[in-house]
Write a structure and sequence with these properties.
By secondary structure, the protein is α/β, with parallel strands linked by helices. It has helices at residues 73-76, 96-102, 138-147, 160-163, 169-181, 196-199, 229-237, 252-261, 277-281, 284-293, 298-304, 307-312; strands at residues 2-6, 9-10, 23-26, 29-31, 42-45, 50-53, 55-60, 82-88, 110-116, 151-158, 185-189, 208-210, 240-242, 266-267, 329-342, 348-362, 365-369. It has 2 domains: 2-51 and 325-334 and 356-369, Urease, subunit C, domain 1 (Roll), CATH 2.30.40; 54-312, Metal-dependent hydrolases (TIM Barrel, Alpha-Beta Barrel), CATH 3.20.20.140. The chain has an 8-stranded parallel β-sheet. It has a 5-stranded mixed β-sheet with strand order 2-6-15-16-17. The mean pLDDT is 96. The structure holds zinc ion (ZN).
Length: 370
């Protein structure tokens, strides 16, 4: 089975000089265009749209019947031009086998996951780290990672409402587990305690801070818009920032201030689920559109959901056009359109350009065509 994608503007995050050109696919993987036999290949017309490696959203909630929040994986995946999604801690070790059965194996969208350090995952009350008895042991985590190849790390939500009186202790525990398994931790930050000056020193190279640009008190920026020392030190060690828009965790103003002073690379993700898809999140492309609005160049915005996400998650097959890797492709348009887009703080900004999905190819197969 051979495919040739034609008539698109290739946006290759690994090679920005590529621009014009075609993409060759054979048996679900990328091949050099001159290896494709044009007499037998199926030609896919990209209709002048942008052609990029399949987008990766590294913070979603898709465990529909296994966690208190969730949404259908394909609805926020391939149907929105996203080929790989990472569920961020909806499940702990207790629900993992069922997560594979009912979510990973039943959707066109590739579903990876950060494993909640709490055995039961996101449960009633969303205070999964309030009781130390609920935390996964090193041995339990080892069993989970051996059983489930789609796990990419651990998740620990560091908000007062999640940890109650435990403060930093669940993260200290997660640190021990992550070190024993040599996997990254995705940390959620929000309303303290615990406070960031206590959280950041526990993070190592490769750990990910999601909700990094929230607009709540006690965030990464001080009152003068300067990054706090512990955050600067963490970035210097190789800790990564991720957007994780969500209902309450993305502020235009925070990112605007950050952008003016720091050019640190971050990844873009949605933290999308049933209750925030209508507003304020919309989709991964809506979140990317908000970055365009803040004057980030399109190439960089696309890198945040492809090459940069690939690197952050330690992936090889995804987020690239590299020959031999799985042929996941996102075709999209940037249309001139005025829209009012709201952030999690209620700030509305008008945009002149909007990123919209056009076609999704997963493992060399067109799985969605808008
Ligand atoms: Zn989340």
């Amino acid at each position: 089975m051979e495919l040739l994608i034609r008539n698109g503007r290739v946006l290759d995050p690994d090679d920005l000089t590529r621009e014009a050109g075609e993409i060759g696919i054979r048996d679900g993987r990328f091949v050099a265009v001159d290896e494709v036999d044009c007499s037998v290949a199926t030609v896919i017309d990209a209709g002048g749209g942008y052609v990029a490696p399949g987008f990766i959203d590294m913070h979603v909630h898709v465990y529909e019947d296994g966690a208190v929040i969730g949404i259908d994986a394909d609805r926020v995946g391939v149907q929105q031009g996203v080929t790989t999604i990472v569920d961020a801690g909806s499940t702990g070790s207790d629900g993992l086998a069922r997560f594979r059965e009912t979510i990973i194996e039943t959707h066109d969208t590739e579903v990876l996951a950060f494993l909640n350090i709490a055995r039961k995952g996101l449960c009633d009350g969303l205070s999964e780290l309030a009781d130390p008895a609920d935390l996964m042991s090193v041995e339990e985590a080892q069993v989970a990672f051996e059983a489930e190849p789609n796990l990419v790390g651990l998740k620990a939500r560091m908000s007062g409402s999640v940890v109650r009186d435990q403060d930093i202790k669940p993260l200290q525990h997660a640190r021990r587990v992550a070190d024993a398994l040599d996997v990254p931790i995705m940390i959620h930050i929000g309303n303290p305690p615990p406070y960031l000056p206590d959280i950041f020193p526990l993070l190592r190279k490769g750990d990910i801070v999601t909700h990094a640009f929230h607009g709540k008190q006690h965030g990464i920026l001080d009152a003068d818009g300067e990054m706090i020392a512990e955050a600067k030190e963490a970035l210097a060690r190789g800790v990564l920032f991720d957007i994780g828009h969500g209902s309450a965790s993305f502020s235009y103003e925070t990112l605007r201030q950050f952008k003016g002073k720091y050019d640190t690379a971050f990844t873009t993700s949605t933290d999308i689920y049933e209750r925030n898809i209508e507003t304020p999140v919309g989709s991964l492309m809506t979140t990317m559109t908000k970055l365009l609005q803040l004057d980030y160049p399109l190439e960089e915005v696309v890198a945040t959901v492809t090459s940069r996400a690939r690197k952050a998650l330690g992936l090889y097959e995804q987020g690239t056009f590299e020959v031999g890797t799985i042929a996941d492709v996102t075709v999209f348009n940037v249309v001139d359109k005025k829209m009012s887009l709201v952030d999690s703080n209620g700030e509305v900004r008008e945009t002149a350009k909007v990123i919209v999905p056009k076609m999704t190819i997963k493992s060399g197969r067109v799985v969605w065509n808008g």
